[in-house]
């Protein structure tokens, strides 16, 4: 289904007066209003194809209905999101779950919805039916060169698909690691990983990036071969200028200061992209901003500061993507809540009084530094986000419109009650 | 397959001389040698039926071969373990994965292998095909009384199966919780859980126990309705004398002092049983003793001290069970390594010089307290464990005999390469 | 110094127009505005006497200037805070740091500032000069009955001081624990603690409460004898109706769900009070709301819900206190930031649409539950808090007035640059 | 006091027979016995001068008696340790706590006890009396260039002292960080730190190393400017070949895989040294091996493997040092327990069957990998450590001899009951 423009207009019409009151109130205090609105409008967060269905845990999965059954329906779902919030104009594919059968048709379908193809993702953490060699004991770090070769070739194939669709980046997340002391020679595993990545790097086009994720644990429960930012950063340095570190918010040990990591990677020119989600305990993959919204703001505070210091364009300088799992909520509602939380954090970061903050920092005026950040965070910036969205053609309240318009019901009608999207 | 006695004898014959040398050496320093050997011999750890196949994570599962395809083959596997280590003489069933078709035949099969039926486990964390109402939002804590009723009846049915097989306990582990702030009214959820448990409690026979697990997180990622020992203990107190707390080593927040919890629950007469496993990050369900063997010893140190203080029989006073997941190793090898680690920790705890420890504690002689515990832990007690095992008819080195005898190969031959056991 | 009323009026005059604009905007959407303002006005948070000076870590302390040199100056400081924010109308004394020399004069001084005496705190975690027996190895749990007796008597003496000043509660925080495995018999330590507390409990007046803190670790690094809410709750149950659990936000293992603990303690009628602070890693004792403001809101959400369910008065039903350490900021500024953050969280909790939340919870509408909580949290309630403060005679912006009025400078002038307040 | 050789001989005489029985038993199974004994004999762990007195927490300090009152007595204490265990032949000084008054006399005194001067440590985490500028807001990362200059000069002065005493390394641990979001510009702080370190690096002699510590938190509670191995490693890379990372076991986030970090730093040629201690919750600075002895073994397993792979000499390739705090135990007893635990872990690592481990790793035989490591860890290697110690002239049981000989009593006699050593 494609959302009729009139549905959005009708929704906005009903809310416009109340919205205007709020927007006028908050914008009165925003010195750089035009800049903020322009940047909010330009900001897009890619939707991963695997986040459009209900996720699960190792204990089970409770599917909802109307999940997309194929790549076309996934693009349709992202199109719906983008129509509603005007900030989800890209999809990130996961191979082999989303191998396009006809590149041209796929590109055209996406274009119809205003959707671009973000980073493509390889998958060497599962065995696929008919796969020659198993990834049970890893892929790019594997002791067996034949397994490494298979994994390298898979990544190169993923790049090929991406090239056809117009992607400009390959995201590599490896489950490679060990679950028991002694299982792995850490050093050799790291070096084999480097060599494998070098082979993949050779296949990267000149205008592509390789985004290297790190993760502290899960599914490996003793060590992960690319386990923290230091390891990813070391690999990115050895690989070359097209290699970058990708930060997933849920991939750290408890209490890690992620905003500091972000700042330092930007300083070194090696931050490549972001996977948004939230978590309380481990890699819980919850809705962005649902548990630690202040941390999300602090991260954006560093992103804005650091990108500006390097003269980077906010919208295109880094890869922005959601990577969450929707076990209990409707996936589309959950994604809209994530996008909203991310844009709120971004808006708050944009209104931080940077000159005042710099001055307070130079004076070690800790009280004042806190006042300045909290002033931005405590401001209700939702009307700014809504204004940017409405101006771009989106809905003032995407989640409520999704419900009012009975979109899930329509999807169930067309796709069925018992569909299960490919993915986790 | 049933392991021929002669195979074990042959294996032991080859190792007996070397074993004797070691046993004599270590036993020379053990004042209470007979008691230690007797207790080690009497000690049995139940094997959960779901641990006999390869486990997985939410990212995938890499099955091995020759996994048991039904309850009979699970009993066969536990029988093999027990023949090898003489400490796995019980199986813990999980309903509905292991519903016996013929109680009498099942009992007889188990008896053939010297296997008893330990606590039976209910499952309300997954939906089964054809199930009327979903557990997506919980079971015993559910807002809908019809779902609670379904879950209560399932538990009562599990008790019925257990009664037929000679079990004496019901283990209740609930995934009930919430993944987002606001989702749940904690208080009401707790009270509904209590009421549901009370209904199940009514169905318990006089000589049965109800073992109530707690878990900090996963699969719920914001709150778990029975989330820590204090919550389980409060429920057990309200339920009555047949209700107890069950401690699973992986179900705590990081750094929790589990040994102190064990000690206090024993003090209050409310420790009911144990699920052994090990972990580095979360509920990793690794082989017992593979990550923190000293913690395992410290827990046994409290168990021995606390059970002795109450005059409890070590072998029967509490329910002992492994609850691990074998993602990378052969499940049977993994279980043998777990049982060995548990018995080593138990043996170390048995040789602690308790009088000296009490004296040092009374004198706040912290150095000496540490010396006494480390003296026990650093002692190589493996010959004691092996001696008890051999005397009971088991193998001196179960893992190596499992390999020498080609047991997995035989199982694959009879069951096939591509079997997948029911379970997680 | 006592802040002249005209100073506050002048400050408010300058800001009143801008304030009014904001207050009108936000109050337009608050259905229960009068109730919210009335409750915010009634809400007071006690200031601990030891938080008025610069705190330190084990690595050192960097004192500021003008710290209070005695109890009178501490009362003066709290008086200043209260004059500015009208929400700090109580002081919590720590014996022996704050032994009054003349009860009547102390009471009168406090009354002059509108200050009441909140819970009194005992100190058995340090040795005082001339103390007969050492608390090196604990106090109420000590193996030596003479040490326990000394500690019991100290607590009873603290009660006596409190009675003279009009306090109604004794807060007991014990550092008792162990730093090495084996050092302590957990069970005996717990039972000795219970017996000691029973002796103190006997000395409690009928209208007094005993507030029992728990803490996971520090300064004991292996076990703490009252280590978690379950242990405190068990003691409170055994002691009787005057004994309650006190929750300090920094005293938990990482990732603990404190709001759930709060809810359950309220359910059981055993929540007695609160120590506010914030932390990222351990018991960091940072400014309330400076790290995890959403968690603070979620806790207040449970407090409001739970107190209302029991018909408790918000202002008097529980003991509210700050317990932070100000290592880098001016202590008074830091305290004002804490009080502001606490009142913001409280205001947000007061405007949660409870009927809608209940309905969404009953329907397992997780998306909507989150929308409802975030609607409250994202609202900029600062004008509500400011309005209540101004109406009660306080300043619209306490921190800025503190700076404009040069209060610290005045204090340094009268007290000196190199004063060091008693405390940690 | 200097321990009379005859005291040790007498002690050993009494135990020699029992020792021999045990040594013969265990050495029968050690293929590389001579190598193990030789390496254990050569292995020395430096004692930090500040660990010779009772440590404290922010809540207080409970001093023992007979603590060293000056540098001479600290050397005397290390001399006593070394006489007892023959593995403490070096002292690590902390400036300004241990500024030698007379280099020659100090060197001669140390030589008398067979003590060498290990890495010298600077201190910019405290303000010293009379210090011109404060380190309240950091030192090498400070916003004020004058503070940075003062800190740089202090470090250079520390090097000068070290040169006079024969040290070959400067250890830099910085408390620099922030306790509140916004306080610090992470990027600028990092770059200022780099520049300051570069200035210090210039002053390093050709045969010196700079060892750069990292620490996740404390005393800074929001960010630490050198917060993890990745940050230290990045600095070391930018500084040059004389700069290395130093790993302190207590300076990580919970659950960090330290052994992997060690392996990768060795791989990169940037591991410089080690600070041993143990911890359960944070930087608890407990006795090495008292909480997680298996982790200590796993770290040594990587150290041995990694140093051998680079052909490094175990005894001199890295800097080995204890960095613990002795709050409850006699400091000298505590240090002896630490050294013993470290040598046990080292001995266990030395007897790992590396060829078999390599083979098992190459075959992904996870069960066997675990068997091999556990075989080494479960072996009671204490007789090997004791043999090496005795051969070198030390005591078979240092802690017991320390007690039998009444050494502490003698020290109290000569130094007094109420001495407090400089340090934390």
UniProtKB/TrEMBL annotation, chains A, B, C, D:
Task: Give the organism's phylogenetic lineage.
Answer: Bacteria, Pseudomonadati, Bacteroidota, Sphingobacteriia, Sphingobacteriales
Query: Where would I find the Xylose isomerase-like TIM barrel domain in this sequence?
Result: 100-285
Output one GO MF annotation.
metal ion binding
Q: What residue intervals traverse the membrane?
A: none
This chain belongs to the protein called: Sugar isomerase
- PANTHER family in alphabetical order: L-RHAMNOSE ISOMERASE
Give the species this sequence originates from: Mucilaginibacter ginsenosidivorans
Q: Which Pfam families match?
A: AP_endonuc_2
Keywords assigned by UniProt, alphabetized: Isomerase, Manganese, Metal-binding
Asked if Isomerase is a keyword of the record, the answer is yes
